[in-house]
Amino acid sequence: QSVLTQPPSASGTPGQRVTISCSGSSSNIENNDVYWYQQFPGTAPKLLIYRENQRPSGVPDRFSGSKSGTSASLAISGLRSEDEADYYCATWDDSLRGWVFGGGTKLTVL
Amino acid sequence: EVQLLDSGGGLVQPGGSLRLSCAASGFTFTLYAMSWVRQAPGKGLEWVSVISGSGGSAYYAGSVKGRFTISRDNSKNTLYLQMSSLRAEDTAIYYCAKTRGVLPRTLPDSWGQGTLVTVSS
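The joint structure predicted for all components is written out below.
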């Protein structure tokens, strides 16, 4: 059971906008920076979003993040087939004194 | 360009020990906290441990505390994970990860390719 809760799956058709949620608590999401990672099968994760809504260079602006209270969201607009991957949210937890990850959301592009 | 080369994985019997290494290049090693994150077959990401840039502070997940020790040699730009009393549930790909800052609470922006640890008799 992950400390951060994500839906196990999400889907959309090409061109659509999809949102993935990440629910936590006051000891993690509410008071710490939220990160989002993308992972393709058999490869290492890749940073998509840091500090809730900042994109590293090279990440398309189709990817955006937001946070409100104890929840965060990743939005992908103009969905493409190559976006089909697993997505994870993560942050620091003040009570556990460590990082926590969501269980991951498998995105399918129909 | 940041490069992280994980190594040291393999097959080990339950109760055994193993040391993982991560050779880093392309950035000023001492300025960044470093971490290990693992992923069991078919499962999600699980944080294992993180160490500050100086090596002066380290944190561990409850599942490995007392059995694993993270360390770093800043003169060799290398991160280590000493694993002992290994259990079947420690079987996973172990990723070395560079964080975005010197403090342990900042999360990764770069990852190694991973090294597979299999605990089995």
